[in-house]
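Progress against Task 2.4 (sequence-to-structure conversion) is shown through the following example record, which the project officer requested during the mid-term review.
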Amino acid sequence: MNLGQWIGLIAIVLSLYILWQIREVLLLMFAAVVLATTLNRLAKRFQRSGMKRGLAVVLSVAIFFAVIVGFFWLIVPPFAQQFQELTYRVPQGFQRFNTWLDALRTRIPSELVPYVPDINSLIQQAQPFVNRLVGNSVAFVSGSLEVLIKVLLVLVLTGMLLADPVAYRKVFVRLFPSFYRRRVEGILNKCEISLGGWVTGALIAMGVVGLMSVVGLSVLGIKAALALGVLAGFLNLIPNLGPTLSVVPAMAIALLDEPWKAIAVLILYFIIQQVESNFITPIVMAHQVSLLPAVTLISQLFFVTFFGFLGLFLALPLTVVAKIWVQEVLIKDVLDEWGHHPQETEFVISSKFPQVDDPWSTETPERDGEEAVDKALPQDE
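Structure tokens generated for the chain above:
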């Protein structure tokens, strides 16, 4: 390798290292791109009905924030009420448990009484776990502030991209060589269509899971069934982990009513998860973005391993975009063209324009094309 090749290799390694260090920022930018693409498609639908661009964008953003506010309005008040009831019933549970232990001591042999646990000793043994829980809660609050800052950053970037998407798109396209820019435009169009399809599929899956959860919890008589169903539908955006998180508050609220209801809720969510993972998501996503279920699962494992929780949340849209770029650039433009040499088509060049009486031509040439070729080719002396 000469000096220039060594410099190029070092530049590639440094670029990969820098990209790895800023991977979280790149993921936030990608999240803003996904959100801006979704809102831009909604704004374009309003524009087709005759609405101006500015008003269409404002209406799309207003609908987005209305959905967010409605979500928290449905979720937070019922959970706050149930949490207050939980803090009231937990001490009652300890008192009932202590009464049951006292009654047990009077009924068992005196030799076994020292082995019966005391509620005070249990509290003392649980004190280190409580302290650890408090520390984790403080860390969660600080982490929540960091998450809030990241969400605000995504929203600001989304607003900037949505204000003038064409300008940012042109900047991205100009990063490629001039002969390949039209091809990049086509790939970006396909990415936009596929991301829109993924959003549609995700919304369908969220709606089905949320509706099934509301109906099932209502049949079981669980309080705040609507809020729990909306939360289950929203957490369905997080593959595999989301359904597990959604079952915890539902079981806690069910446990306040009857213990058997908590087990029933667990069975209900397990059935919903099986239906969603085996039928709804594979069928909907395969129809919308043509993703195989195995590819979806592998992508989730890959992105959560290298990018953490944020990568898990964005695993599916990242896979959609990566699939298009690999298919269009690597497969079609590189691998499909591998071995096609220019000399195989050199026979097309001839010393004169094909005439009607030529054995390999059955078309009558246009005179303008004949004159152009005669001027371009060397004339006989």
